[in-house]
Amino acid sequence: MKKLFMLLIAGLALPLFATGHPFTFNDMIAMQRVGGIAVSPDGSQVAVVASKYSLDTNRGNSDIYLINTVSNKARRLTNNEAADFNPVFSKDGKVLYFLSSRTGLVQIFALSMSGGEPEQITDFPVSIGNLKLSPKGTFFSFTAEVYPDTSNLSEIARRDKESAKSKCSAKVYTELFVRHWDKWENGKWDHVFYMPVIGGPAVDIMLGLDGNCPSEPFGGPEEYNWSPDEKTIAFTTKLGRDRAWTTNFDVYAYDMETGTRKNLTGANQAWDSSPLYSPDGQYLYYLAMQIPGYESDRFRLMRRNLKTDKIVNLTEKFEYSPSGMILSDDGTEIYFAADKEAHIRIFKMDTTSQIITELVSSHTNSNLVLNGNRLYFTQNSLIAPTEVYRYNLKTLDTTKISHFNDKRVKNIDFSEPGEFWFTNRDNIRVHGWILMPTNFKEGQKYPLAFYIHGGPQGSWEDNFHYRWNLQILPAQGYVVVAIDFRGSTGYGDKFREAIEKHWGDRPFHDLMDGLNYVLDNYKFVDKDRMGALGASFGGFMINWIAGNAPDTFNCLINHDGDFDQYSSYYNTEELWFPEYEFGGTPFQNPELYDKWSPSRYVKNWKTPMLVIHGGHDYRVNLSEGLSTFNALQREGIPSKLIVFPDESHWVLQPVNSQFWHQSVIDWMNRWCKPQE
After folding, report:
1. What are the chain's domains?
2. Which of 104, 280, 570, 675 has the fewest CB atoms nearer than 10 Å to its CB?
3. What are phi and psi of 142, to 5 degrees?
4. Which secondary structure element, helix H or strand E, spans residue 29, and what is its range?
5. What is the C-alpha separation between 497 and 252, in angstroms, rounded?
6. Rounded to whole angstroms, how far apart are CA atoms 649 and 615?
7. Whether the model pTM is above 0.90
């Protein structure tokens, strides 16, 4: 970002002039996307996964790089058309293990740090994932798909081949799920396995369980962990035919000697996850919610004494959800990230006093790895893609140690994001972001792009997003505003919970109050040229605005949003979500399903709308987008429908993403820049 001078207007930093080019989709797709990291035992090297996406191949591919922690210089370790990822150092640091799809199936490979080519370690007939090395380096652990009646990987592969050859396409179900997020369920489960590093059979520690670890679709390797003595593996799963309407995940302990399992969290009917053993093996830390059926409840950090079974809630007064927990070598400190006021910050807790200290306060931080007195992590922001950073626990200094995108960022003129707070009609403080057009000139007025996030328990965080990047429209001459309405995460329990049973009033009021605040305080916003856009809950809110504030915006953009709460309940999959948000099922409590259905207000619709939907979106079914478009067309409202038959709740393929972005820009320009 090249800004030579800054001017403060209403608390917002604005460029007087810039020397780069405005941010484009091509800039975004060209960024290397930095993912997971692993630090060598001696702290001299950091293995980093970085992915590149191509419009020509219409896909992404990941490779592994090695950063010298003294020079901060990176070199590429792998260079293959297949994906290389999930790096894990051996205990002596002489070997880097990783997963790769270079054989057609994802397997474990080993690369000597002294040089040479990667050596394939496993040759399973199925793909595996979520690789870990046990604390003493004796075992590999990983996950693989199994059938309910067998964990024999050869038999699983045989059945898969037979199924692929079959000319019968029938899918038969006797319980839920039928579909989940973006796929039809195939009767298989993800289970955790272990095997000796020196070779030997792979053992399924979840044998016979009809449950997944990690959980779908967002779970990862944090959902299982080894005890320090390598005698136990703790893992997270959810069992029972009520899995579609309950959030009752539990943490189990698998005994390596006896092959038995014990449910450690059976007393809690809410969500338990992310087990982590203390270095001395005396305690098990894990995350727990308190409200059954409420997927957006706050996670508390719990500590279980494995000798006495006493459980202590360590973070009840800390109103933010910890994630990515790691422990110091002596177990006296635990580090984690948490979403607080639009930034995912890094915190440290003293495990004795339970005092929490905020270490890194800005931007979006994740992938924490501790090595001695150095904390490594990845960070990104609204003006910078992800890079690797190091925090010195003694000097408290933060250093950027990777530079994957420096040259790309150098030539881009980003809009400097500004934060603002306003007081809504109920006397509650609400947070928002505002980004200026990159061609801003004082004294001129600019059209507004009003973004509405999904969730609804989500947040417009200070991050570099690849689907809803807030830099795209400032580069097109728009002021961008994004408000964290009631229901958003990162502002405490009461604020987050305020949306329950209030989908159409409290968040809607906050959005309208925030819009009025912007119009009153930022006079360069042209109130006669405004468009609103949102996805998921944001798409629902677009439909809600169409019927409840029809004279506010020049145009609307609805991506994968609900049209009718009745129909949505019966065609979605995670039933616990609407049942909690609307106080029961539609046959138990029809009033709120009716009250908060945008379909009831179609008679008021008149604002031009672009409707976008993914054919593989089983969270918000395609029928909701088709219903929205039917209503618009029947009412004679200017509208356009874009369906991506092979995309899900998100548009992920590069060429489809390019078309999505251009379509959004074109629709906004058509209605907010008609003279152009």
Report:
1. 410-672 (3.40.50.1820)
2. 675
3. -165, 175
4. helix 25-30
5. 29
6. 9
7. yes
